[in-house]
Amino acid sequence: MFSGGLDSLSWAATRSRADDSRPLLLVMFREIGLLRLQQRVYKAVERLGAARPVLLLPMSQTPAGDGSGLRLETSSRTRGLLYAAGAIRAATAHGVGTVHIPENGQLALNPPLTPARSAACSTRSVHPRTLASLNALVTAVSDTESTVQVVNPLAQLTKGEVCKAGRTAGLTPSDLESTLSCGKPPTRRSGGPPIANCGVCFPCLVRRSGLLHADSIDGTRYEALPWADGLPLDRGADWRALQRWLLGRYTLTDVFTDTPLPPDTDPTLAFDLIRRGREELVRLLQIADAVAADVA
């Protein structure tokens, strides 16, 4: 799956340059208002000069009405499942046995920053348990012996490690910065500015830390700074929650108390992944402290 996000760009760049004669099928769900950004991100993959054939399959994410006149689901709660189902359908039609949903393991696990964000109160669309359940469902409904499997190729990488992998594949800092990693893109809001990333939601905060880890600088144009004075209270909620979470302890017990992991997943690996991600995120606290010191 190729969303136009930082993770999917890094993965696509890496796989396009792999020594593999099989075509790489990139399934892209067209985002209303963000199609130009997605196309620009895909051009970054093309510029690398793929070592294998690369096919781009744009798909619509807008469901058609069933004629009943009933209102369609307008939230994004089912978005991850719909995207995965669409990719599974495309893979089946093209005879592909594996669907890769590239999301850094840090956000795939998405440890809750506060108790209010536990379990289903935060996105877990690429959580190991979600993918295990999805694969079990695909197997159960399949009428053939060969079924499509859904995997996350970046499950063991932090955001910063994903960014470094993209740079190793030949992507420039500008390529990475042109991506969309936002959970609440301003362009989706009525009257919002033509900026892809808000800069203050949790995915944007993880994005910032990842780019800083890879390049020591993040030149992305954001709508707002999380540590800026005068930021509306609601827009600073994720930043305050992240500060509290980073200043507190995170133990192996915390891994067990959130969304359960599948039986074949090693919890110590999940814990080490989150630990490395926390080390990257601490960089943001240091930047905020430096900004506060300059103001003082």
Describe the structure.
By secondary structure, this protein is mainly alpha-helical. It has a two-stranded parallel sheet with strand order 1-2. It has a two-stranded parallel ribbon with strand order 3-4. α2 links the parallel β1 and β2. The longest helix has 29 residues. The model has no long low-confidence stretch (mean pLDDT 88).
Protein topology:
Layout: H1 6-16, E1 24-30, H2 35-47, E2 54-60, H3 79-93, E3 98-100, H4 105-109, H5 128-141, E4 149-151, H6 159-168, H7 173-177, H8 202-215, H9 237-247, H10 252-257, H11 267-295
Parallel strand pairs: 1-2, 3-4
Query: What is the β-strand count?
Result: 4
Major β-sheet profile: 2 strands, parallel
| Sheet with most strands: strand arrangement | 1-2
Give the count of helical stretches.
11
Give the radius of gyration.
19 Å
User: How confident is the prediction overall: mean pLDDT?
Assistant: 88
Please state the structural category: mainly alpha
Helix % is 40-55%
| Beta-strand content estimate | 5-15%
Order of helices and strands: HEHEHEHHEHHHHHH
Question: Can you tag this structure with a few keywords?
Answer:
296 residues, mainly alpha, two-stranded parallel ribbon, 11 helices
Short characterization:
This protein is mainly alpha-helical. The protein contains 11 helices and 4 strands. A two-stranded parallel ribbon has the order 1-2. A two-stranded parallel sheet has the order 3-4.
